[in-house]
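Thread: "does anyone have the structure for this chain?"

Original post by V.I.:
We have the sequence but no experimental structure in hand. Need at least a predicted one for the grant figures.
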Amino acid sequence: MLNIFQNIKGDKAIWAIAALLALFSFLPVYSASSNLVYVVGSGTPVGHLVKHAILLFLGFGIIYGVHKIPTHFFKGLSMIALPIVLVLLIFVLAQGTSSGGTNDSRWIRLPLVGFGFQPSNLAAVVLMIYVARYFSKVRDIKITFKESILPLWLPVFLVVALILPANFSTAAIVFSMVMVLCFLGGYPMKYLLGIVGTGILFLSIFILTAKAFPDLFPNRVDTWMSRIDSFSNPDDTEGTYQIERAKIAIATGGIVGKGAGKSVQKNFLPQSSSDFIYAIIVEEYGLIGGFVLMLFYLFLLFRIVVVANGCASVFSKLLVLGVGLPIVFQALINMAVAVELFPVTGQNLPLISSGGTSSWMTCLAIGIILSASNKSIAQESASGNAVDIDETNPLEILSGQL
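Reply from O.Q.:
Generated one for you, tokens below.
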């Protein structure tokens, strides 16, 4: 064990943030898991806690293994992984199953282990690496829209289009993060605006098609459409049940909270251990606890930018931002949903909520960031690649300001 700690490299602050978030997660997950036992009738609180511990242990194994990989290796890995995730996304979209009113079309059940695997989470990470690779290849070339259609936008739209029917929020986050990465990579703004307009057009066509042919995407589009309707219509008491319970939890938590394990609303929130765990945290640890947790994610954002600024190559810079920003963005969305600033999205709180694939993909992203922050590996990568700096690139301007 001591030998493992001696071999840990990379940004120590990011290691500390990930470890502290993971350790803290045991308290709210154990508390909120009683909902799964007494309301859903599944397992025991200790059983859910052990499962959560196993998932986090495997997740930190992913972090440790990935952070040892030289950063430039991810270029080739993205080319191999992208076709694989496309096949997985097509598979889950085609199966179109549901159980107990829950849409299972986004999951692949892993045999023997009993865990569910969500390819959309893996696709998001792989796509970000792929986009970072593309901009590292064309940094010395004048980018034109026509020449970027096949190598850049075709994979992006394929991934987003395959995620969209079953998971609108993930598709929206992926598309938004790709736009941010393209801006930082120096893609012309006039083309980006055109891409955004095209994306809105295709989304509108998709919604109209789903409405006109409801049997085409059963039990998928209606779910996130009803969430948007409930968010825009506060009088819809049935549709806003979860939000109302979350707000009650936050309101009754006060400044210092009720204390660990003393949440009442965990017994009424269907997703108290995952989507709405932030509300349970505020109820038990108060506004102080909720604010401190938010500061941890903001500090993670700061360290991500610092690591990106310290990278020698454009690929490493974009890679760190591409896989790191979605973690913080997802956390802020989860918190915003709990206070009704966003409609219900189904996004977990990274490293806190119970869940398998989402935690593993967060750990994969953190491992990639730590790989880029590992100075010995970074020097090894840079030895075979010239340091690429472009003072006209928005990413370089951002780095210069820091």
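V.I.: this helps a lot. Strands lie at 98-99, 102-103, 108-109, 116-117.
O.Q.: and The chain is about 70% helix and 0% strand.
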